[in-house]
Structure formats: C-alpha cells, structure tokens
Amino acid sequence: MRAITTVTATMRAWLIMGALLATGLPATAEAHDFKPALLVITESPNPTGAAEPSSRADGVHEVLWRVPIEAASDSLRPVMPEGSERLGVPTRQREGDMLAERWRVRLPRPLPGEALRLAGSSGAVNEVLLRVELRDGVFTGRMARTGAAWQIFLVPARPDSAGIAATYLGLGIEHILTGLDHLAFVLGLVLLAAGWRQIVGAVTAFTLAHSVTLGLAALGWARVPGPPVEAVIALSIVFLSRELTARSSGSPAASPRRLAIVAFGFGLLHGLGFAGALAEVGLPAGDIPLALFTFNVGVELGQLGFVLLVLGIGRALRPALRALDHDGQARARRALQLVPAGAIGVLGTFWLCERIAGFF
C-alpha cells in the first residue's frame, strides 16, 4: 500500500510539474537566460609610431560596455581607476539583444595592479564578464553581485592562462544549465534511450556534433543566421516530444543507430546555438583556442551533470515501481513518459512559434 501511495504521489508531482511547464513557464521564461553584461578594456595601439615607453605613457584605452537591452536604462556603470579621463563622446548602438556603448579613456597608470569597480544597480544584470586586452596579454574575470554590492576586479600583475580557462569553463557550465531548450533536448534523448548504452551513444553523438559546429562557428569558419538556427533547435525539441509520445503509445523503441543519428544531426544545430551565446561575450585575442576549449568543456560538464541528475531520479523511482503489479508498472511507466513528453512538447512548440514570429 505504501508503494502504491508513493507512486501516486510521484505521479501527482510529475503532473503538477507538467502543468506548470505547460501554462506558466513559457510565458515568463526565455529559452536562454545567459545574458551577462560585458566590459572589455583594450589598450590602444601606438597611433604615432612612437617608442613603446611613450605609447604606454599615453595610457589611452578603448572601452566597450555591453548590457542586455532590458538593462539599457539602468544605472549600472563601470568605474575606471581614480584619475582616469574620458575622451570624446561615447557612442551607443543596439547589437542584437544587447546595447553596446563605446568610449575612450586615458588612464593615469598601467592597468596591471589597478582595481576596476561597478557603480549603480540593475534589475536585469547579476553578473559582469570582464576582459582586459593589453599588448602584454589578456586578463579575464567575472564580477558578481553579492547583495547590494559588486565584487571588485583587481587586474593581475601578469597574464594568467588559468584565469582565462576558469572564466570560460564557468561560462560553458552556466550556459548549458541556463539553456532550457538545450536541456529539454538532452532530457528527450535520455528518456528515448533504452538502457545506458543507448544513453551513452546518443549523448556522445550529440556532444561530438555540437563541439564541431561550436568550434567552426566560433572561429568564423561557419556562418549561419541565428534566428533560423534557434527556430530549428525548438523544432528538434518538438520532434523528440513526438517520439516520446509515440513510445508511450506502444511504438517500438528507436534503434541505437537511429537515435545516435538524430542526436548527431540536431547536435550540429545546437552547436551553432552555443556559438551564438559565446559570441555575446567574445573570445580573447591571442587565447582563442584555450577559451574555446574550456568553454566547450564547461558545456560538457554541465550536460553530464544534468544527465546524471535525470538518471538519479529514475533510479530513485525504481523501488516504488517494482512494488506494483505488472499492469500498475505499465501504467506508471506510461505516465512517466507522457508527462515529460507533454511538457517538452509544449515548451518546444512555444519556442518554435515565438522564434518564427521573430522573423517578422
């Protein structure tokens, strides 16, 4: 009796989750919540051909400040080191979903060893990515908000490849875990797979495919418009939902080869989506291979963690399912397939319609 009660409660939880996904989530959540602000400070090249010491003494740097369009009117702004002088009039322009502001600044001292701060507030930005590109090397970091205060970034005395690796590794993990459309697709693959061998095959094919297109697009060797790619990614989720629904109705399971082919084909498109997110923050000049590699590793680590979480939930449900008779197990398994299939389908359809409407 307790086992039946446990399974009933589990079914109810799944149904509540499905109802929330189907009614509330699409209206309030974006497929991607990966929109940190970006601050890039670039040391200006020597415009006069002067010797290096003279150029350094000039201290002129280019500043790029990009925020999500939702934060365009917020007061959040970068603060340069004390004694800095802004040169000329800033320019502002919209770049996709971001607003970019550019200006030049003369710094009184070399940036290594100086502190960079943020002032003001924003309801749409919780994190700022920072990249300092000097002729001696590139420095990267992240400035997060803790309560009402923002972290201070102290520019290191010398370039550190470990800092770049840690920054882009974290970005990759953050992107996959906040990319609901990518997670929905991975969830569909795991639920479609019959056993762990199929899971490994499908996830490996998906990983290989999106790693290839991520690298090609990030390096500028493959250029595909973003909106159609995002629409087809949503379509891939609808496709998996249809396959899951058919499975729950008694259709035979997909062969390992067919599932791997589907995962690989759609994975190529998801890789282009990852590249679009990476383009929002850019790659550091001179350290592109390291940044691209660690970003991809971060994506894979986040994806692996999500797959293990799904498998852990499935394992936790097994004792309750085994306590049921044969008919009860069949009904419970069908419900466990139908609810996520319906939720994935609703989300995928919503994103598909939303992204097609964005064409116009």
Average pLDDT, all residues: 81
Shape: elongated
Q: Distance between termini?
A: 56 Å
What radius of gyration results from the CA coordinates? 24 Å
Name the structural class.
alpha+beta
Major sheet strand order: 4-5-2-1-7-8-9
Please give the count of helices: 10
Name the poorly predicted regions.
Answer: 1-29, 48-57
- Biggest sheet architecture: 7 strands, mixed
Short description:
By secondary structure, the protein is α+β, with helices and mostly antiparallel strands. Helix content is about 55%, strand content about 20%. It has helices spanning about 1-25, 25-30, 50-60, 160-180, 180-190, 195-220, 225-250, 255-280, 290-320, 325-355, and strands at about 35-45, 60-70, 75-80, 85-95, 100-105, 115-120, 125-135, 135-145, 150, 155.
